[in-house]
Amino acid sequence: MAVMIEPIKAEFGASDAQMGLLTGLGFAIVFTLTGLSAGRLADKVSRTRLLAASALVWGIITALSGITAGFISLLIMRMLVAVAEAPVTSASLSLLSDSYPVERRSFAISCFTSGATFAAIIALTLGAYWVELYGWRETFFIISTPALFISFLLFFVMPEPKRGQYDDAISSPTSPLQPALTTGFRASTKALLKRKDYRLLVCSSAIATLGANAFGMWNATFLVRSHDLTLSQAGMMAGFFGGGAAAIGILSSGYLADRIARRKGVLWLPILGHILGWVFIVIYFLWPKGLGDDLFFAGIPFAMLFCTLASFFSVWWVSPCLTLLTSIVPGTQRALAISMQTVLITFLGIGVGPMLVGVLSEVFSEVAGVESLRYALLISTSTTLISVFLLFKLKSYQAKQLIKPIQ
User: Fold this and answer.
1) pLDDT for residue 181
2) Best exposed site among 22, 84, 188, 359 by fewest CB in 10 Å?
3) Is 162 exposed, middle or buried (0-12, 13-18, 19+ CB in 10 A)?
4) Within 10 A of 378 (CB to CB), how many other CB atoms are there?
5) Rounded to two decimals, what is the model's pTM?
6) Which CATH number fits domain 2-160+185-400: 1.20.20.10, 1.20.1250.20, 3.30.70.20, 1.10.260.40?
């Protein structure tokens, strides 16, 4: 959607606020309302069949988006896309948890989560080319086609692994969730929320995305305003340096987590990543325009070095934290647990984060002028420090338990 904003806005005569609703908040609200039910459904039915249906519906709705007559109808299609996507993360991570033992799970999860980052890079390059060449309506038809093929593979080719087949190695006989294998939706939700380790982990992950997603959404605009790049230059650099480094960072953290978890505990990796990522992103936002550019590649601001480092380290929480989450809840409640986390991440990261930066930028514009976005992003990304605090609390809590999730 990011590369379609301008042509859609021009055709429908929409405002920036309306486009913000279309690309962010409208999707996030519907996802929030449907995510928990979708996660519980993934705990009850075949996950491969559920993902096949999700991909099929997603492809059909995306194709229909290309024939919408106005802004309202396109917004409705966008909301229906949120419904189609609601079970994807919870069902997929539940499948991965039952396909890989815990000692190999982090890298498997990192491969899955890095897919979204690679998709963003493709969208900023190939997607922009298609929109420019064929138009935004035809592009919707193009990107809907692979989903139909994926749906076919999921339904007819991919097997459904045994649910909870690797849980014996990590389960605790004293866990309050262990006997709750057949509880209903409300009882399962209450049981999950009673776990302090689960609450700390989910809150830390969600707060981390508040600043990170705002950074991803506004980074290209920041480069245009504060480093005098063209929009195409800014989009390419944000995608290549920021998105590329993030994808490599997710894969690296998954690889490292599988190797250090047994010796030092899995939480040191996200804590270190958050701290280093925050330090580099502060340097990036405060780096003066033009400083050091002659020491870097021609046409590329020296500040992009710090953008790359920040993007690389700031995603080190993703795979370790998701792996830890899958290891502290029983298999019959795993998809629900993941969906609860995904709902909060979507609401804060997609719904609140980018909007908060826009509001702060407007507030600071009277005193900072064109540089108001720089300081708005500084404030929003500082929420990472809250995530660090929560992870330290979680590590302290785990140390007090007689049986830890990962030994």
Assistant:
1) 47
2) 359
3) exposed
4) 17
5) 0.75
6) 1.20.1250.20
